[in-house]
Design brief:
Layout (H helix, E strand, L loop, with lengths): L1 H13 L20 E18 L5 E3 L5 E14 L4 E15 L4 E7 L2 E10 L10 E10 L23 E12 L2 E12 L2 E3 L2 E3 L2 E12 L6 E12 L3 E4 L2 E4 L3 E15 L2 E9 L9 E16 L1
Antiparallel strand pairs: 1-2, 1-3, 1-18, 3-4, 4-5, 4-6, 6-7, 7-8, 8-9, 9-12, 10-11, 11-14, 12-13, 13-16, 14-15, 16-17, 17-18
């Protein structure tokens, strides 16, 4: 069971892969097993294959347009009491954008995050139905660069919303023999901001995830599948006296995760995610990505 609890965090770590310009959200790196601390390093290669404008209106790039990104995330969390924990995450990316007329590369930090979690529902004895439940709150720090502050014609230097934000939600995990199930949801608020003379009104967002996995014969290997959805409300943007109302943003993502526990406190995981398979999308980029996660934990 300890191996499976280890894997459950891996699925949450890979979930909610943000669209190209940091438009998505992430579930905080919760400690969901019997560990006192954890740290992870994740590297992802992301290929942007197109854009969704209005619902049902898609533009897919041809071979002359290239938009790839290498994302690196470092996260850590620690228990501060029997049930409470704190955590943080920083992001860095390298982009390679080109078209028929121009080529750009850039490296920059993305938005960062500080989180607090609490185990609200404990599972002290076996139950067929009761999961472990965690409530969390996360603060997004505007350490990235947004579209409105970009100095690049291809927006290769964009890696975040560059707005303060706060979110809250819950995550649930359940293990039944060699099978595991997880679900998570969050709602958040992005605060108004002013960037290079552009005034950006507040917006609200929400996301959820469901997933399941299996460790055959209770082995050290796990294969899991996650489905996630993200949506952010429309907002008003003011360029001086000119007002523009953006469309709301939404997309779905399918992820397949394979994990192997090298020992009880160290695992290696590989993930494939695709935002072009499930459901409609609007006002967002569409990407496919492959990621690798090295995850270290310290036992109680």
């Amino acid at each position: 069971m300890k191996f499976i609890l280890f894997y459950l965090f891996t699925s949450l770590s890979f979930s909610y892969g943000a669209s190209c310009c940091g438009g998505g959200s992430s579930i905080p790196g919760l400690i969901t097993g019997d560990f006192r601390a954890q740290m992870g390093l994740q590297a992802t290669y992301q290929n942007e294959i197109g854009k969704a404008y209005s619902q049902g209106e898609y533009l897919y790039y041809n071979h002359n347009k290239k938009r790839t990104r290498q994302n690196y995330s470092l996260f850590a969390s620690s228990m501060i009491s029997e049930r409470a924990q704190i955590g943080g995450k920083i992001n860095f990316s390298q982009t390679d954008y080109s078209n028929d007329a121009k080529k750009e590369t850039a490296s920059q930090f993305g938005d960062s995050e500080i989180s607090f979690g609490y185990e609200l529902i404990q599972e002290r004895s076996f139950s067929w139905w009761q999961p472990r439940g965690f409530v969390f709150i996360a603060l997004t720090l505007p350490t990235g660069s947004s579209n409105y502050n970009s100095s690049s014609s291809l927006y290769s230097d964009v890696n975040g919303k560059e707005q303060w934000g706060v979110s809250t939600g819950m995550s649930f995990v359940k293990i039944i023999r060699s099978y595991d199930f997880l679900s998570s949801f969050q709602i958040g608020h992005r605060f108004s901001d002013k960037q290079k003379g552009v005034s950006i009104n507040e917006s609200f967002y929400g996301s959820f995830l469901i997933g399941a996995g299996v460790s055959p014969y209770n082995s050290n290997f796990r294969l899991g599948v996650n489905i996630s959805y993200f949506q952010e409300s429309a907002k008003n943007v003011y360029f001086g006296d000119k007002k523009i109302e953006t469309q709301k943003e939404f997309y779905s993502e399918l992820s397949i995760v394979g994990s192997y526990a090298i020992d009880p406190n160290l695992s290696l995981s590989i993930n494939y995610s695709d935002q072009s398979i499930l459901g409609p999308a609007q006002n967002t980029t569409l990407s496919r990505s492959v990621g690798v996660l090295v995850h270290k934990r310290w036992s109680l």
